[in-house]
Amino acid sequence: MAYAYWKNQKHEDYASFDLFFRKNPFHGEFTVFAGLEEAIKHISNFKFSKDEVDYLRDEMPECDPEFFDWLATVDCSQIKVLAVSEGTIVFPMIPLMHLEGPIGVVQMLETTLLTLVNYASLMVTNAARHRLAVGPSKSLFEFGLRRAQGVDGGVSASRYAYMGGFDGTSNVLAGKLFGIPTKGTQAHSFVSSYLSEKDLKFKTLTKVDGIQVDFWEIVQESKAQLKFQDGNKGELVAFASYAISFPKSFVALIDTYDTLKSGVPNFLIVALALHKCGYKAGGVRLDSGDLAYLSKETRKMFEKVATEQNIPEFAKFSIVASNDINEQTLLSLNQQGHEINAFGVGTNLVTCQAQPALGCVYKLVQVNNEPRIKISQEVSKITIPGNKRVFRIWGNQKYPIIDLMIEDQEKAPLPGKRILCLHPFDQKKARFCHPNSS
To answer: Residue 330, CB half-sphere, CA atoms under 13 Å: how many?
Structure first.
């Protein structure tokens, strides 16, 4: 298209494009706009290197050689960008980004801008829906890197999950790049790699008071004290090894063998041993089974030991749940009742499994001060022509009631003055609104 514009000497025509979406994702009522920072970086750095121009020249031998000389000079110095603030709640048909400039340049930005905004906005919206489902009191961690669509997708997912209300990520690279708190526990492979005491090569732990002790010996004492005899020994050794490595943040994955008969007892044994050394264990992670039931039974075991050993904080150990968590799982757990403090959400979050694409579009709305429209038999695909301004109207109850689009040259709505708001495609939908005057 850029060549056709150039060939017909239209590439300098002053054009306006709107980037927007037509329908909220996940059958929901809102979308969160994201990706603006990356979009602005792309626009700011947009140009063709010599190697890129040479490649295009080889790929397009039928084009006039002077076109490639023009490409080598292209940048976005004449581009004007208007945008909604990143992180804003937005709705269908409202321009998220409005770009103006030479049509030959603005047109070439289309695909990259859609790529940067589509997934980012979908991902943040998905994360926000998970946060709404779980409520403000629970922690949410993004665990999806290994299931994401490539490394780039994984890093983006971590970034935008955090923007959407998650508390941290297991993605260390994302933590480094964006300052996101990182969290993680051991894997089942770590637990199952231990079979017996002979696998515990290092048994020494430095207590909080600085004294070095044989931690495995204290673990055995704690086991006898709690009278837990049926747990898997390899699992107990694995937990002890992990506690020696991370005495200040010990969290155990407890479902490798049997959650209630082995995992929870072995965790409590090691937690008691750490307590004797002046440390406080963090909690456990459940990765399979009936999460509501297992969390409640686990909490009962914590409370029982807390009472018997007179260690009240044992009753408050954190319970983390993973295992294909999604928005519906969170809502179901809330209905059932559970004792889970935090959730690790992976596949269903980062792949946006419930809806894999938002469907943003980038449409021409004006050329040389003349509005342009796309007509379609599908009403939803008809574009709203011309440059526009958007106002979020707030009512007297101090909450937003409608987003109003007006032509660029129209007068802005005035506080306290009644305005008639019309749906662009449905004449039956019309409302009078009174913008808040305060």
So the answer is: 25
Closest CA to 186 of 197, 194, 178, 176: 194
* Alpha-carbon distances of 180 from 154, 172, 232, rounded to whole Å: 14, 9, 36
Q: Is 262 helix (H, G, I), strand (E, B) or coil?
A: helix
CA distance 311 to 315: 8
Rounded distance between C-alpha atoms, residue 253 and residue 186, angstroms? 6
Distance of CA 125 to the CA centre of its chain: 8
Cα 62 from Cα 33, distance rounded (Å): 41
What DSSP string describes 124-171? HHHHHHHHHHH-TTSEEEE--GGGSSHHHHHHHHHHHHHHTT--EES-
Q: What is the mean pLDDT of each run of 10 residues along the chain (438 residues)?
A: 97 98 97 98 98 98 97 97 98 97 98 98 98 97 94 95 98 97 94 96 97 98 95 97 97 98 98 98 97 98 98 98 95 97 96 95 98 93 96 88 93 91 90 80
Residues 6+ apart with CB under 8 A from 249: 282
Helix (H) or strand (E) holding 51: helix 50-59
